[in-house]
Each structure stands twice: as structure tokens, then as C-alpha cells.
Design goal:
Blueprint lengths: L1 H24 L2 H17 L10 H21 L3 H27 L5 H27 L1
Length: 138
């Protein structure tokens, strides 16, 4: 009987996590940010080896910290904490733009890659701005 309860508990927990995952994936910014991560990973493979432990690492860390802030902002119900996460994400996006600009100026990426990457960042930034504004109106 105990094993039945444990099984029921596991089923209940997994259903809860599945529902939570579906809700998070329902956020438009989450999907667009995943696209940004995917594109970033693809582009970073083109960078020269001497930059793999410097600029590439910095870009990756900044990008993944941004996703972490999206998840935090989604989970926080307190308006102040949510805004804090969203503002931190905004700073990360601005820093990422600087790193991408540096990458282009050092000719690690093409003009076409620069425009595509910048457009993805701008789109995420616009979504973020809308999320921040909706939080401020509440």
C-alpha cells in the first residue's frame, strides 16, 4: 500500500512539473530567448580558438544568466522581486549587445550574423520592455 502512495505521489509531482513547464513555455519571451540561445551557440562555434576562453565564455555566461532571470521573474509573485529580475535581464541584454558589437568589430562574425543576432536581441528586449511595463501598471 505504501508503494501505491509513493507511486501516486510521484505521479502527482510529475504532473505538477509538467504543468509548470507548459506554463513557462507559454511565455513568448521564453521561446524567443531559447531561439537566441540556439543561435548564439551556433555562431560561437565560428569564433577563433584564442577567444574560446575569453569572449565566447563571457557571451555564453551572459546569455544563460539571462535565461535564469526569465525563469526567476516568472516564478516570483512579488512585484518588486519580479521587477528586480527583469531589470537584471535588461542589463544582461545590453551587455550582450556590447559583446556582439565587439565580436563584429574584431571580425569574428559577419555583418549578416551581426544583424541577425542583433535583431534577435532587439526582439527579446522589446518583449522584456512590455513585461516590465505590465508589471509597473499593476
Amino acid at each position: 500500500m505504501e508503494s501505491d502512495l509513493i507511486k501516486e505521489g510521484k505521479i502527482h509531482i510529475s504532473k505538477k512539473k509538467k504543468k509548470e513547464k507548459e506554463e513557462l513555455e507559454g511565455l513568448i519571451i521564453y521561446g524567443k530567448y531559447l531561439d537566441l540561445i540556439s543561435y548564439t551557440e551556433m555562431i560561437l562555434k565560428k569564433f577563433p580558438k584564442q577567444e574560446r576562453f575569453a569572449l565566447v565564455t563571457m557571451i555564453k555566461e551572459t546569455t544563460y544568466e539571462g535565461m535564469e532571470q526569465i525563469i526567476y521573474a516568472y516564478k516570483f509573485f512579488e512585484k518588486g522581486r519580479k521587477l528586480e529580475s527583469l531589470n537584471f535581464l535588461d542589463v544582461k541584454l545590453k551587455f550582450l549587445k556590447v559583446l556582439i558589437r565587439v565580436s563584429y568589430k574584431n571580425k569574428y562574425i559577419s555583418l549578416q550574423n551581426y544583424h541577425a543576432w542583433s535583431n534577435k536581441l532587439t526582439h527579446v528586449g522589446n518583449l522584456l520592455g512590455g513585461w516590465i511595463n505590465s508589471c509597473l501598471k499593476q
